[in-house]
Specification:
Elements (H helix, E strand, L loop, with lengths): L1 H33 L4 E2 L15 E5 L5 E5 L6
Antiparallel strand pairs: 1-3, 2-3
């Protein structure tokens, strides 16, 4: 019985740890995109990353791989 209780606590800690890692990854990706980075498409959840609406663009490289980057800021 004790092992089941401790296992539940471990699962909760793992879930919390994974959520924290995911939040840090999203924050880092957002910052890197703002600095002009091109991130591989398969590593970025474009619906979660924190960038201004409409500025995320998909670019196909010469090798056929797709990356995501921010469109330049356009001033009218």
């Amino acid at each position: 019985m004790q092992s089941l209780q401790s296992s539940g606590k471990t699962d909760d800690r793992l879930d919390f740890g994974n959520k924290c890692k995911q939040e840090r990854m999203i924050e880092l990706q957002s910052r890197e995109l703002e600095k002009g980075a091109h991130l591989r498409e398969e590593t970025v959840d474009e619906h979660v990353v924190d960038v201004p609406d409409g500025r995320l663009e998909r670019i196909t490289k010469d090798d056929g791989k797709q990356t995501l980057s921010l469109k330049p800021d356009v001033i009218d």
